[in-house]
Design goal:
This protein is α+β, with helices and mostly antiparallel strands and 235 residues long. The chain has a domain at 118-206: RRM (RNA recognition motif) domain (Alpha-Beta Plaits). Helices cover 26% and strands 13% of the residues. It contains 6 helices and 6 strands; from the N terminus they run H-H-H-E-H-E-E-H-E-E-E-H. The strands form 2 sheets. Strands 2-3-1-6 form a 4-stranded antiparallel beta sheet. A two-stranded antiparallel ribbon has the order 4-5. Strand 2 and strand 3 (160-168) form a beta hairpin. The chain is elongated. Residues 77-96 have a biased composition (Basic and acidic residues). It is found in: Nucleus speckle; Nucleus, Nucleoplasm. This is U1 small nuclear ribonucleoprotein 70 kDa.
Amino acid sequence: MGRGGRPATEESVRCFKMTQFLPPNLLALFAPRDPIPYLPPLEKLPHEKHHNQPYSGIAPYIREFEDPRDAPPPTRAETREERMERKRREKIERRQQEVESELKMWDPHNDPNAQGDAFKTLFVARVNYDTTESKLRREFEVYGPIKRIYMVYNKHSSKPRGYAFIEYEHERDMHSAYKHADGKKIDGRRVLVDVERGRTVKGWRPRRLGNSQIGCEPGLLPVPLHKCRDIHCRV
């Protein structure tokens, strides 16, 4: 038989017979190695060990345990779901406190960044971050002459925030842009337009301060002040 249990071929048998004619110095290379020397184990096998004392139960040690009547009542640990619910509730409470403190300081009528006539100003959101002021001017000048454009940037990174304010020379031009510019595609993105509600809508506040208009009935929404120039409608 050859290697792997396969039958030996004639060529392999012929090679095996030829090795006996090799000189002694080459035959020594094919000699088997010496067997591994036997060494006694360092420890006895488990079934060979002899224990000095037999195994015993734990009944003699029961008296060492604490009496259940003297033990304090067990304390109930907080589960994972309860811990997550507690953290969520604490986060909501912290955010509510922050909103209340920021809402006290928020006054859109005394904002130094809010300049110009609010009734002639158009709010443009979802602006492409690569869109420039000149591009916005070209797109919105079709509705009327523009007095100024204010693009909002991040104070720390100086990157655009994606929205801008456009003040027109005439209020009717702002109304025209408000009606026709919504959904207009500029640099691959459809913009969203709206009036400047901070100074023109009574009771309005931004979403970061908990906009209460979301989910309200249409009849309960505040009336835009640009639709009623009456002094009683203003804040």
